[in-house]
Write a sequence for this structure.
């Protein structure tokens, strides 16, 4: 198990997917501004400067816990998707496994956005008012995503290793 | 045996999916109630509406400065509106880490003016009263007193809803050389409740769903302008990039 988890074939795509996830979640807070900047008639320098500044805004526009949960969700999503890709042929018969991972990823993004006073990600779904009813103002959603992704990751790992070798059936005495 | 395990795995995943769906569904239902106005909002408070309205100009929106307090030269070429919640930790972070740089670089040099509007979120218990208190301070000493009071609230609050006890609002006024009992009277009469609620309604109409939300654009004598929307306590570099582009 360790061999796979520390191999570059696992680590590299996991980190790439996690990075994309973090960038995506950070930009979601200012989605309209990012869209207008990318597609607007601005200079390349302006576009690059603003996009970089907004990206570095993750350190100031999110709480410590929100950021921690965002990174955790991102890494778990990366790990899940990498394992899924590795096992995609073998998992064809278990399609709902893929759906679960996708759903949790969305939950993670929603949660990471509303851990702050700003609620833009949930508001995209028309749900920002709903966090008023949650004791931790939306941090629960991120936590739920982390739990579900962890379970999904664990089950995927088990699936992976089930296919790694043929078990010798134990003889009944 | 492996088939049995797989079947169990599938069942667990299906159950988890159902739980997650139920969770989302419950949130959705609450929102429906909120939008119909059937949920009990905190006394005298209006919850910001949730779904941002269609924004034909992408990252921009036509907004108004209303008659709200202004920091800086009233004739500055660029206007920046901040929708603020005095109990929001990110508004506090903006004041602590970014505002002073914007002030020295752009406000004090007459390049931009900052207009402060209120967006006290309903789950921040004391925020509405703090917004009203700042308006009451303005009543006594104009925009200068308003911004001194604004700075002082953020200096003293630990944020997140009840970071500043309400009995401190008149104490702050006294400390700033204002009349604390007059401010308390103003607060008790809820003189500025309607004003704060109007800001809340405007924020909703502009698509501001959280705090801090900023609108930055070229000033217009009518007080209305098309502003670029910036959400969250973004670093100084983000504001600098947008303001410099607008100043061109």
């Amino acid at each position: 198990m360790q061999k796979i988890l520390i191999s570059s074939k696992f680590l590299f795509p996991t980190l790439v997917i996690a990075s994309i996830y973090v960038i995506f979640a950070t930009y979601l807070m200012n989605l309209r501004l990012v869209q207008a900047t990318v597609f607007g008639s601005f200079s390349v320098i302006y576009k690059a400067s603003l996009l970089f500044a907004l990206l570095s805004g993750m350190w100031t526009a999110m709480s410590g816990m929100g950021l921690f949960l965002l990174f955790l969700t991102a890494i778990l999503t990366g790990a899940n998707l990498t394992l899924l890709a590795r096992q995609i042929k073998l998992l064809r018969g278990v399609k709902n496994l893929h759906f679960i991972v996708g759903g949790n990823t969305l939950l993670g993004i929603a949660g990471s956005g509303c851990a702050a006073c700003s609620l833009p990600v949930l508001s995209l779904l028309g749900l920002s008012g709903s966090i008023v009813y949650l004791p931790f103002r939306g941090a629960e959603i991120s936590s739920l995503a982390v739990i579900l992704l962890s379970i999904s990751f664990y089950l995927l790992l088990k699936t992976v290793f089930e296919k790694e070798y043929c078990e010798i059936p134990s003889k009944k005495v | 045996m492996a088939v049995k395990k797989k079947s169990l795995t599938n069942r667990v995943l299906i159950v988890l999916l159902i739980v997650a769906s139920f969770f989302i569904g419950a949130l959705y239902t609450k929102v429906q109630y909120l939008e119909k106005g059937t949920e009990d909002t905190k006394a005298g408070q209006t919850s910001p509406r949730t779904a941002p309205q269609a924004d034909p100009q992408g990252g921009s929106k036509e907004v108004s400065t209303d008659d709200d307090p202004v920091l800086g030269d009233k004739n500055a070429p660029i206007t920046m509106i901040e929708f603020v919640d005095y109990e929001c930790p990110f508004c506090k972070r903006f004041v602590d880490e970014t505002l002073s740089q914007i002030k020295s670089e752009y406000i004090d040099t007459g390049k931009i003016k900052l207009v402060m509007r209120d967006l006290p979120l309903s789950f921040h218990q004391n925020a509405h009263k703090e917004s009203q208190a700042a308006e009451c301070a303005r009543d006594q000493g104009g925009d200068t007193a308003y911004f001194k009071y604004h700075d002082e609230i953020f200096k003293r609050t630990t944020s997140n809803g009840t970071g500043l006890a309400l009995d401190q609002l008149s104490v702050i006024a006294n400390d700033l050389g204002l009349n604390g009992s007059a401010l308390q009277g103003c607060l008790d009469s809820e003189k500025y409740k309607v004003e704060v609620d109007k800001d809340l309604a405007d924020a909703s109409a502009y698509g501001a769903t959280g705090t801090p939300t900023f609108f930055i654009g070229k000033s217009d004598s009518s007080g209305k302008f098309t502003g670029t929307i910036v959400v969250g306590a973004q670093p100084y570099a983000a504001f600098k990039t947008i303001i410099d582009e607008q100043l061109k």
Chain A touches chain B through 55 residues (CB under 8 Å). The mean pLDDT of chain A is 72. Residues 14 and 81 of chain A are 8 Å apart (CA to CA). Chain A has one domain: 2-162.
